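Need the bound structure for flavin-adenine dinucleotide, inputs here:
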Amino acid sequence: MQLQQNKSLLPYNTFHIDVNAEFFTELNDVSSLAEISALPQQKHILGGGSNILLIQPLKGIVIHNNLKGIVLEKEDDQHVWLRVASGEIWHELVMHTVNHGWGGLENLALIPGTVGASPIQNIGAYGVEAKETIESVECWSWNQRTLQNFSNSDCEFGYRDSIFKRILKNEVLITSVLFRLNKVPVYNISYGALEDELKQMGVEELSVKAIAYAVMNIRRSKLPDPKVTGNAGSFFKNPTISKLLYDKIHANYPGIPSYQVNELKIKVPAGWLIEQCGWKGYRKNDAGVHAKQALVLVNHGHAKGDEIWKLSGEIVASVKEKFAIELEREVQVW
Ligand code: FAD
Ligand code: EPU
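Answer from helper R.:
Posting the output first, comments after.
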């Protein structure tokens, strides 16, 4: 293990924030984990840096995950089980499965980041969440210094949530994920925009590849490319509100989009709420709100993490004032 000191994290986060880590190391092999565990400093695990906002110089060690490998662990008539090392790039895994015609991950194409981060917030897009294909998650425990296996139900997955964001936060490093994929895909094109895009593409016969490409087209049309404009995707979660509050808002804003969660609860898009508060396309210095998707905060160049943080606070306050809804940040703040 090689420790570097005072390392700039600028190339390692998609928000393009320039702060230094006190110590930095590359993790290339699971066998190094025992040695890293023995170090006294606080440990921060970094994948693709696409869901973090750096607001200050980081004390402790940043462990950049570079664990690689995809192994077909078993198969039967209907399924394949892939064991994927946590440092693999998520979109490359999706394309690997799509190219084999295996179903399950196609709606999640083009999400940035690593496989190891996928269970953390149970990544989701276009009607599908990672939890639907994750069979189990293997982790290294910093305290116990052993590998542990968590079944799907142990992970306590929810909307942008799992046990890894709660009681296991800072306790484990995810080393690999076991996915169960379908040899005979079951397509999910329930998300309106996806069906429209497939029609637009002239797709007559559905396939995992067609769905993945449709998802990629939609994403490219709405979301800023982190290579060009710093961002971490949705900055906030979509809030779930009571039917009572929803009815009150709906009376004044009949156009509010919504998804029924159950009889008493409704999910509303945070992007719509933020747009109604007038933030879409807003910019102050280099910190701003994306002009095509108000849920995405952007760094137009040299914004500091605390400028983005401050802007996010102003957005939370204005949405609360106008709609009595408290937005929750999705991005991890370091
Ligand atoms: P990082 O940002 O490096 O880390 C995120 C958190 O996970 C940190 O707390 C980190 O410590 C922890 N972590 C990372 N790897 C491990 C590990 N191996 N073990 C333990 N902890 C770990 N997300 C969605 O759900 N749906 C979307 O549609 C979506 N679209 C996006 C679009 C854009 C343009 C961008 C920039 C982001 C988008 N995201 C989306 C958010 C992001 O891509 C995901 O959250 C992704 O899973 C983060 O992966 P990462 O490797 O970059 O994680
Ligand atoms: N909307 C607006 N104004 C905006 C943005 C959105 O009115 O500025 C409205 C849209 O018109 C639409 C609704 O909000 O009616 C939903 O918009 P969209 O389909 O773009 O999805 P989203 O709810 O904003 C969520 C996820 C995304 C994911 C997409 C597609 C969250 C927090 N975000 O966004 O995930 O890619 O759905 O499934 O759940 C991420 O987590 O980083 C992320 C990008």
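Comments: The first strand starts at residue 4 and ends at 8. Residues 46 and 64 are 5 Å apart (CA to CA).
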